[in-house]
Specification:
Layout lengths: L6 E5 L3 H13 L3 E5 L2 H10 L4 E5 L7 H11 L4 E5 L4 H9 L4 E4 L4 H16 L2 H7 L6 E4 L2 E4 L4 E4 L4 E3 L2 H12 L5 E2 H9 L9 H13 L9 E4 L3 E4 L4 E2 L2
Parallel strand pairs: 1-2, 1-3, 3-4, 4-5
Antiparallel strand pairs: 6-7, 6-13, 7-8, 8-9, 10-12, 11-12
Length: 244
């Protein structure tokens, strides 16, 4: 992330909002790209290094909640949602699926800028999340007695024992580490691990958690890393160091 000139992507189908935010953010020293819908957003993401996405919920075609869910399942880009004043349920759902913050329309561009800066500060302060999001940075992480080779989907214990992770186990561990000390619900984890295939009340997350605990915990019945929050979800506890 270029901390001197953050690159913000504004995704909104209203041209007047896009144009106003371009002018305001550029005056504030930020680089800005815009997109009118999900397809345009994906084109920008494929060709530009974006630091944060401002995403309108109410758009024609694929809406902002669906786009946010896809972003969270495939990347760690910070997301701020733009929501309608009466869209309380949308705001709740947006936060549940992984948005970092939301701003209610109509809004003052100064407020949105303050929210953006706050989210960028938080994500920069989380080395695991930043490293995992960056290309080639944080490919090797250390926690507890394990070294996690992210791109190889492999865990290596300090005594030299290596364990391969299934795709589901890898995505689950990566999601938990990226948001360590945050409680993630089963639905959030399902969105990340299985995306559009996730089904309501699917218990596969619990099965994945159990399999992962058997691999990384000294005592799976008394876990130190993957913590259960009864009635809520799971979180990852402990320090995570970036090796390379």
């Amino acid at each position: 992330m270029n901390r001197q000139t953050p690159h913000i992507l504004i995704v909104d189908d209203h041209r007047e909002i896009r144009d106003a935010l371009i002018r305001y953010f550029k005056k504030s020293g930020m680089r800005v790209s815009v997109a009118e819908d999900g397809r345009a957003m994906n084109r920008v993401l494929q060709t530009s290094a974006i630091d944060l996405v401002v995403l309108d919920i109410m758009m024609p075609g694929e809406d902002g909640l669906s786009l946010c869910r896809t972003l969270r399942a495939t990347s760690d880009l910070p997301v701020i949602l733009l929501t309608a004043r009466d869209g309380e349920l949308d705001r709740i759902i947006g936060l549940e699926i992984g948005a970092d913050d939301y701003v209610v329309k109509p809004f003052n561009p100064r407020e949105l800028l303050a929210r953006i800066n706050a989210v960028l500060r938080r994500t920069a302060a989380n080395p695991a999340r930043e490293g995992m999001a960056g290309a080639g940075v944080g490919d090797v992480l250390r926690f507890g007695r394990w070294v996690y080779h992210v791109h190889r989907h492999e865990l290596e214990r300090r005594d030299g024992v290596s364990l391969s992770l299934s795709t589901g186990e890898h995505l689950l561990l990566k999601a938990l580490i990226n948001r360590r000390n945050m409680i993630l619900t089963r639905d959030q984890l399902l969105d990340i691990v299985r995306g559009r295939e996730a089904q309501a009340f699917d218990r596969s997350i619990d099965n994945l958690i159990n399999r992962l605990r058997k691999k990384i915990e000294q005592d799976p019945k008394s876990p130190e890393h993957i913590i259960t929050h009864w009635g809520t979800g799971y979180s990852f506890a402990g320090e995570v160091d970036i090796v390379s």
